[in-house]
């Protein structure tokens, strides 16, 4: 995924998922950028699928 603030590309698993001190932590799905800590919404499944499909085509 790409950070909406700094433009850094990172895997969703690399981001800091949720905040322990946040009152919304139980239902919040925001992913923090590892570079600038900007909270990004999770990437939609459609976008993930399209990226995966194009990566497979590039490898061939």
Concise summary:
The chain has 60 residues and is an alpha+beta fold. The chain is built from one helix and three strands. The protein has a three-stranded antiparallel β-sheet, with no helix packed on it.
Description:
The protein is of the alpha+beta class and about 60 residues long. It has one domain. Helix content is about 25%, strand content about 10%. The chain contains 1 helix and 3 strands, in the order βββα. It has a 3-stranded antiparallel sheet with strand order 1-2-3, with no helix packed on it. Strand 2 and strand 3 form a beta hairpin. The longest helix is centred in the last third of the chain and has 15 residues, at about 45-60. The chain is elongated and about 45 Å long. The two termini are about 25 Å apart. The model has no long low-confidence stretch (mean pLDDT about 80).
Give a quick set of tags describing it.
single chain; 60 residues; alpha+beta; three-stranded antiparallel beta sheet; 1 helix; 25% helix
Strand content: 5-15%
Distance separating the two termini: 23 Å
Task: Give the structural class.
Answer: alpha+beta
Discrete helix count: 1
Series of secondary-structure elements, N-terminal to C-terminal: EEEH
Sheet with most strands: 3 strands, antiparallel
Shape: elongated
The amount of helix comes to: 25-40%
Would you tell me the overall average pLDDT? 81
